[in-house]
Queue: 3 jobs
Job 1
Amino acid sequence: MVRALDCGSSGCGFESHRSPHRYPVRPEKSACMSDPFMPMNLEDTIVAISTPSGEGGIGIVRLSGKDAIGIASMMFSPHRKGTPTEFRSHTMHYGHITDPRDGTVIDEVLLSVMKAPHSYTKEDVVEINCHGGMIPLRRVLELAVREGARIAGPGEFTFRAFMNGRIDLSQAEATIDLIRAKTDRARKLAMEQLSGALSEKIASARTTLVEICAHIEAYIDFPEEELDLHTREELSRSADTLAGRLRELSSTYEEARFFREGLSVAIVGRPNVGKSSLLNALVERERAIVTESPGTTRDVIEEYLNINGLPLRIMDTAGIRETHDLAESEGVRRSLRAIDGADLVLAVFDMSLPLKDEDFTVIDKIRTRKSIIVLNKADLPGSVDEGLIPEGLPIVRISARTGQGMDSLKREIEGLVFRSGSSSDGLMITNLRHKLALDGAAEAISRASRAIVEGLPYEITAFELRDALDRLGEIAGETTTEDILNRIFSRFCVGK
């Protein structure tokens, strides 16, 4: 059911619930595992293997659609009496999948039935728990297709949950974030969004916008009336407050992005300052080869680390120096490229020796980057002149050989990421699409506020408010193009 929010004029009505007919359905588009996602025929019953490829204890074949239970009834031979069409919802039953043509037993299974609307997709759903080898799973999948199901496209189960109103678009995106979470804090962020916290925030903002829009539309409908100064100031103040709330929420993106995607950290420096030793100390194992010969590392070596829930992708790079060796020159070029692409640079210097020309080359490269100066070999007498290091950059003294200062370095990395920042205790947005929509809505609201104060025609204010409503609607999927849906759901695996 579609419900419109009435702003006092038909020109400002915005849907607060999705209609399945808002998006084009393309029944002629065939589905296969390699196709990019496209909205498909929602009347089809779909099937997919929902567990990863390979051997395992169990594997799950999932069906969803109006014929899911009927197809399962043709395939399933229960140990006890009854058929899936007779089973109560949310019950599990032991039996065998058999080929109805010749009675061949394909697998011994547990079959669960979830009847609409109380299922993930709000359709009839059947899940068949098979033995976890690919052969029985494929045989069950092929049998379901032969009996009338269609192989699901990437993310099509979640797309149906979205289209049928069980979740909104931001919750659908949180589903894939939850699957791909690299740390427990990333999981918590995804779960918060999946629970609807962001949706509630956006719905509250849209309600405030609709109230402001209702006042403006009323004056458009009755042009003989004029907004008095007090009302103008009140509406402008409400708009500015709302724009500030949206900008505050948008500002959490950078911090949350690190939890969702991980922090890219490049370890750079001239040869033999201890970059590879630092990598080994951070990951607490011998990941990189360490020798006294300069130029040992000739390519970027990557490793992953978790610091208090913050996922790090650490890159050990070749030593930066002038060289005529072709392989080492390529390594130096990749080191410089790693600096440009990193979220954070750990610039390593040997504090037991005076700075060399190659050290100053490194300093020049990191001046405009978010960096930490790492003075290695703190277990040796110091000779480095710290006054030559640019002011404002944090300095940490360590010994990669003994482990001295490693905890301080990890705290500095974490502190530098969140120093600017927003508190990770509240609601945070992890998706660039959401940030752009929030920024666009805040700008439109600010323009509407200025139009109110300056006494511009009410139609201009109403236009800006509608623009803001549309941008906020994009987050939940109230106003979303097919292209955006394609990009979002193509990231899903088949079976989810």
Job 2
Amino acid sequence: MGEPSEAVFRARDVSKVYVMGEVEVHALRSVDIELRAGELLVLLGASGSGKSTLLNILGGLDVPTSGQVFYRDQELTGAGQRALTMYRREHVGFVFQFYNLIPSLTARENVALVTDIATNPMPPEEALEMVGLEGRLDHFPAQMSGGEQQRVAIARAVAKRPDVLLCDEPTGALDLETGKLVLGVLEQVNREVGTTTAIITHNVAIAALGDRVVRMSSGEIVERRRNTARAALGDIRW
């Protein structure tokens, strides 16, 4: 195995506490993690384990209560809202469990929402072709299946050519075969474009697709492992 690639993210001693009335909820407890350039990381854990909170902090959607987070040489902790907005716009693509498409816009127009404000985007048509939807450019979300809508969401995320793709339960609302299709698109983007990718899931079977697997429980990392080889998508069952 060659030299490890450079760290895209470094989180050091990161904690997140939410105060709800008189109750403190410790979502993250002194988490240390790195995400390396070009890798596919699978973040495993049950609901409430802290994995979405961690992803939101790495993506600049939330800030830690304590600790430090770096994106390459840029420290995100302490950055203002304007700086975090620019960071998200220029560097990060997000894919969520629910597709967040605008119902009144076509697939092409939903992707163009991002490409119109990106610095060096690919054409919406190219992004939709990458996810196998070149024949659905002018269809509205209501005219597409759940899997097709999620692929539009992925096209929207990758069209701005992000350095990092952060995916929170991207197959959570999909059946097995549709979920595998969506995972195949994410794996293809990681392999062919080289986009550093993190996939959050509670589904243990998906872990075999990653270069590395990190498992969380109660706001802490309880296991880290590297797969000797990434599994073929056809071998995944759940």
Job 3
Amino acid sequence: MQTAESYGLTPFIQRRALDLPAATIFAGQLLFGVLFGLWGVALALPLVAVIKVLLEELYIEDGAEAEA
């Protein structure tokens, strides 16, 4: 049951909730793993999600200001 949840259900829910491609998550885990070791791998998904939201907010705000 744990294997099915870890390899099937959890990635499916994360992909739908965060709208992040699997390659982005994998690249983030590699990058943060190299930079920060085991803690980087453990915190890669939340950090990538925060970076994605920040980029979206900054991009949307810059686009709205350019139109005005």
